[in-house]
Amino acid sequence: MKEWLNELAAEFKLNFIDDDRWELIVEGLKNTIIITFFALLIGVAIGVVISLIRSTYDNNKEDYKRKGGVGYVIMSILNGICNIYLTIIRGTPVVVQLLIMYFVVFATSRNGLMVAIICFGINSGAYVAEIFRSGIMSIDKGQFEAGRSLGFNYIQTMIYIIIPQMFKVVLPTLCNEFIVLLKETSVAGYVGIRDLTKAGDLIRGRTFSAFMPLIAVALIYLVIVMILTWLLRRLERRLRKSER
After folding, report:
1. Concatenated DSSP letters of 145-189
2. Residues ≥6 apart with Cβ < 8 Å to 56
3. Cα(243)–Cα(58) distance, rounded to whole angstroms?
4. How much is the pTM?
5. What is the pLDDT of residue 64?
6. Can you give the pLDDT at residue 140?
7. Which of 10, 36, 25, 31 is nearest to 219 (CA)?
8. In the CATH hierarchy, which fold is given to the domain comprising 37-188?
């Protein structure tokens, strides 16, 4: 047992203490959190816009057709663009999207972190949009009628009545999307970004010891996910209390 502990300590020293290799893990964790946080903000912004366009079109399709005119044409075009975006983003792997963004769209950029944030944000936006749209569509149509009876127009009804209720409905799914996004950023190393996974792989390549750095990376991801899950449960309990 003592010999095994000594070997473990030697492995830990080799992988993290020598040459201050622990700094690679810290830098990788920081980049992972930055990418995840800002990509989620972009994803939520895109998701809100697309879900509002699609749900508005679905809820008022018959009215738009009956009235016709420019409004119907504009909403049809916007809805079509949203459908194309959702089909492309959800139909292609995020790794391929990242490679295209880095080597094609932003080929002249040297800011890999920014490219990763934009790419993961656009990717997340497609899934967040469907989460929000399903939340909006799950709200009883009587809520729209109640808003109209209070003198609100459609936009005011969405802002003051529908969207607050929608967020309560979709919050667990949205937090799960955040966890998925956190883990998806592990492919950022494909374009040379030193995220958490890439940091562990760099240590492995320098020490020729795979166990310690990769297990450490896995444990860090696990701890972050456990913390997020705990926060989500607390938030859900608070929301349930506020409904009583």
Report:
1. HHHHHTT--HHHHIIIIIHHHHHHHHHHHHHHHHHHHHHHGGGGG
2. 75, 154, 158
3. 29
4. 0.87
5. 67
6. 79
7. 25
8. MetI-like fold (1.10.3720)
Find out whether 124 and 43 touch, Cβ atoms under 8 Å.
Answer: yes
DSSP string, 71-135: HHHHHHHHHHHHHHHHHHHHHS-HHHHHHHIIIIITTT---HHHHHHHHHHHHHHHHHHHHHHHH
Give the Cβ contact number of residue 196 at 10 Å.
29
Structure tokens at 231: 């926060």
What integer pLDDT is reported at residue 177 of this predicted model? 87
CA distance 134 to 6: 55
User: At 100, which amino acid appears?
Assistant: I
How distant, in Å, are the alpha carbons of 40, 44, 48 from that of 125?
Answer: 8, 6, 9
Cα gap 98→186, rounded to integer Å? 12
Question: Residue 35, CB half-sphere, CA atoms under 13 Å: how many?
Answer: 32
Distance CA 39, CA 209 (A): 32
**Contact (Cβ atoms closer than 8 angstroms) between residue 210 and residue 25:** no
- Average pLDDT per 10 consecutive residues for the chain, totaling 244 residues: 75 79 90 94 93 83 72 84 94 94 89 93 94 85 78 79 81 86 90 88 86 91 91 78 61
Residue from 190, 139, 192, 185 nearest 166 by CA: 139
For the chain, what's the residue count? 244
What is the pLDDT, as a whole number, of residue 243?
A: 59
Q: DSSP 3-state assignment of 195?
A: coil
The rounded distance, in Å, linking the Cα atoms of 51 and 54 is 5
